[in-house]
Amino acid sequence: MENDLELSGAKWSKKFPGSTDTKDLSGNFRLAINDFICAMQEAGIKVKINATLRPQKRSYLMHYSYRIAKNGYDPKKVPSMQGINIKWDHGTKEESVKAARDMTSALDIQTLQTRPALRSQHNTGLAIDMNLTWEKTIEIEDASGNVVKINTLPRTGMNKQLIAVAATYGVKKYNGPGRDFPHWSNNGR
Ligand SMILES: [Zn+2]
Q: How remote is the CA of residue 92 from the centroid of ligand 1, in Å?
């Protein structure tokens, strides 16, 4: 019903919060991530987790606020989603875009190069976003207990040697379309 709808805006970022805790991840992936993070920390890698489980509704808010704010998507054309009484159309294009822009800031997606996916492995607890940094050469144990020396650049989650070690734990770096630097999952998507 039209009367029950609430206009889009920054406050929506609080409604369907995501988690940054690995305990909210699913089954085997949770175990894999915990082992991998433990190995990284023992190796001296600083791990900062930005997102784990993300409700589907939050993905919807992220996806469409980004498209309206950044891609010129028509706010009148956003499909509704069950359980979300959001009104994207503020009457004027200017107001609608401003509200969507406020939302992308509140959701902390305003600087992303590619729009957030409408559905992702985060929705089922099978993905994690994390920033990884370290100094100098490190040695890390893979899932079989082999010690792997990481002596190449960059010293971030984009390091190919680290990506190979992660795979031994069942943790796959994002390999889908576009770029998603902090994203790891059970299947690379
Ligand atoms: Zn992600």
A: 33
pLDDT at 1 over 70: no
- Ligand 1 centroid from CA 144, angstroms: 26
Please tell me whether the overall predicted TM-score, pTM, comes out greater than 0.85 for this model. Answer: yes
d(CA 36, CA 162): 10
Residue 5 has pLDDT above 70, yes or no: yes
Cα dist from 155 to 39, 46, 151, 165, 175, whole Å:
16, 10, 9, 14, 19
What DSSP letter does each residue of the chain carry, written as one string?
A: -GGG-EE-SGGGGGTS-----GGGS-HHHHHHHHHHHHHHHHHT-EEEEEES---HHHHHHHHHHHHHHHS---GGGPPP-TT--EE---SSHHHHHHHHHHHHHHTT-TT-SSPPPSS-GGGGT-EEEEEEE--S-EEEE-TTS-EEEE--S--STT-HHHHHHHHHHT-EE--SSS--TTEEESS--
Residue 136, both tokens:
């100098």
